[in-house]
Model the fold of this input.
Amino acid sequence: MGFFDKLFGKGKKQAVTPPAAPAEPVQAPPVPKPVPVVPAVSPPPPKPVAVVPAAPAPAPRPAVVAARPPPPPPPKPIAPAPAPTAPPPVPPAPKPAAEPIAAPVAPAAPPPAAAPAAKVAVPWLTAADMAKKQTTEQPAKPAGAPVAVTGKLEVTPSTEFFQGFVKVTIEVKNGMNIPAARTQVTLDFNEDVLRLQRIEPQNYRASGSKVLLGDVRPGQVSKLVYYLDPQICTESLVDGVVLFRLPDGKTETVAMKPLKAEVVCPLFFTKEVASSALLKRLVESELQVRDSKVYHPKIQAGVKYDKIYELAKSSVLAHDVKEVREFKGYNPFSSECWFYGETKVKGYKIVIRTAVREKDNIIEFFAASTEVRAVTGLLAELNHQLATDLETHLPGVSLEQVLDEQLKARVQAQAQIGKLAEDVAAGETEV
Done:
């Protein structure tokens, strides 16, 4: 018996020692985990799960035990026998586990790639340094091809006489395929002969005769109108330049065609027979071109309006015209005088009126004819003559010209046109 005991004891030791290692794999058989997963897909699978009857595997166990003597203990060591059979199903289970494990291993590789990013964000670099670094690291973009400029900027000036002014119109047309940036118009004229009264439209920025049109788009047309008040009858040249900027920053200049502003004073000859009735008919029906110059005189104390009136009247009589009718009033002083004349060259008929009204502080020169040039030239000459006479005889009086058309219309409405045909002297005839 001692021998068997020793023999079985050794067998037990051998049987006991090995199970310690397989203990882990034996727990692995709870691979029944796939069993619950299968029902989630479809309820029937539980029946095939019964195939787990690894029970047939134990069948060989009794066969092995039968080969050994009757002692019942052998079933315990037989437990390791299923271990070799269990491993076959176990390998499929680890495969899915191995796949998720492989996925996390992949992100572990990125750390080396992140290292260079850390180098870019250097804390001690300023924003300027970073900008310089980016410009040096980034390849310079190739410069775009220069723009081919086609066409040209066209400048068209023109003049006409309008309401006693030399009206200069400048038309700027951009015929190029690019915008004319910061376009500026500068008009050049003799300021001793022509005085700038106003520029239209008035929404442009202007300094004297310089006007900033701004950017003129391709195909766009911009217009400027200068109103020049002639101070004397003479011939004067008006020209100018237009400046604009190209996309490359260069400035181009376009010179305007010079214009001749010819303000001609009409030469009169006296019509011996002229009546107030003739003047009334001419003003009301025949002479449709009419204009006036109106002033607010700045008078010092002691200067009387009748003296100013005499100077205004003498300015008209300096020409070869005939005085036809005069109306006077006092307290306050108010007087107007009508004249008639014809030009020597073309024979244009002209009716002239001068008036001074103390109540409204007004001096007026009025002219009516069939030719605008004759009216504009005559008013310019009367303006110059009166300014010269005032400077000589009444140095304390200066003139401020009125440009308000509504005020000028009200002054003309005060004229005594309706009384021109009254109290006609006996024997007076019309021509």
Q: What stands out?
A: The mean pLDDT is 74. The longest strand covers residues 235-245.
